[in-house]
């Protein structure tokens, strides 16, 4: 608090607030939680921009996984005779495509989150971490719509889920945590190296085929599956299939490997994001 003076006489006391981006709390998850109301508005903004002036609206949320399911069913299910753990292949593929489409969408949107909001980043102080976090939360709406379509497919094929469905939120949380960690790293990296946007589609395509979306993880020898599950999306995909279709490929070593890898991705993402956060406004 400082006394302001005017014409030699004391005036009203004016509080002075100093904003220091280098404060230890800046950029942390705790600070982002305290500003969670801003997260709501960022997510709402992203949703409005996403579907503004679109002819099909939220239908786009299911067109991509449905079209991919048809392609996979023709080439992998019918022509290549890919096994599907005793489940009709279209249902087998679409169950995996729901979380995978969410993950790929979060990566595509989140990696550019800082660049698309450069006016906010350069002119207003707020927890920058909220921008990539909003990009991770927004695709959950599309994933929810995809789950509704998946429920309809399950009824069509007469393959209804059992009690294991109660574990579905846990595997969804694993997908969100993995996406958040990777997006934090890519969003910060993209500010410094703009060619990330060109590398990301290739990376996502490779990651797709390194994940059991079009094929079952049961094709791998059991002793190597935990190494394979160091890709956290392996346990997410197999967890969704176990919870919704009753497949039994997922085991404790696989789940432990995926959870550990996901936790490492979050820690690495937060560390790298905080390391570069003070330079965003200057570089962007």
Number of helices: 14
End-to-end Cα distance: 34 Å
The number of strands is 2
* Strand composition percent: under 5%
The biggest beta sheet reads: 2 strands, antiparallel
Mean pLDDT: 85
Helix/strand/pairing category? mainly alpha
Stretches with pLDDT under 50, minimum 5 residues: 21-27
Which sequence of SSEs, written as H and E, runs from N to C?
EEHHHHHHHHHHHHHH
Which descriptor suits the 3D outline? globular
Question: If strands are numbered along the chain, what order do they take across the biggest sheet?
Answer: 1-2
Oligomer: single chain
Task: Give the tags.
284 residues, mainly alpha, two-stranded antiparallel ribbon, 2 strands, 4% strand
């Amino acid at each position: 608090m400082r006394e302001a003076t005017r014409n030699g006489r004391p005036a009203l006391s004016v509080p002075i607030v100093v904003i220091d981006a280098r404060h230890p709390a800046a950029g942390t998850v705790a600070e982002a939680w305290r500003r969670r109301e801003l997260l709501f508005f960022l997510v709402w903004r992203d949703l409005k921009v996403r579907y503004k002036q679109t002819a099909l609206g939220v239908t786009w949320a299911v067109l991509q996984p449905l079209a991919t399911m048809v392609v996979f069913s023709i080439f992998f299910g019918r022509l290549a005779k890919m096994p599907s753990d005793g489940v009709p292949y279209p249902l087998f593929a679409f169950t995996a495509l729901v979380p995978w489409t969410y993950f790929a969408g979060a990566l595509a949107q989140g990696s550019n989150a800082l660049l698309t909001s450069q006016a906010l980043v350069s002119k207003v102080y707020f927890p920058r971490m909220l921008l990539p976090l909003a990009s991770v939360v927004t695709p959950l709406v599309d994933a929810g719509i995809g789950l509704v379509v998946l429920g309809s497919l399950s009824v069509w094929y007469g393959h209804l889920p059992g009690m294991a469905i109660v574990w579905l939120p846990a595997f969804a949380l694993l997908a969100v945590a993995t996406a958040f960690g990777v997006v934090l790293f890519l969003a910060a990296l993209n500010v410094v190296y703009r060619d990330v946007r060109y590398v990301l589609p290739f990376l996502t395509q490779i990651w797709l085929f390194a994940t059991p979306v079009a094929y079952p993880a049961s094709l791998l020898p059991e002793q190597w599956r935990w190494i394979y599950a160091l890709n956290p999306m392996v346990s997410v995909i197999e967890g969704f299939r176990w919870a919704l279709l009753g497949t039994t490929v997922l085991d404790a070593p696989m789940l432990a490997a995926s959870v550990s890898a996901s936790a490492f991705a979050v820690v690495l993402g937060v560390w790298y994001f905080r390391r570069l956060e003070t330079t965003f406004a200057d570089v962007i």
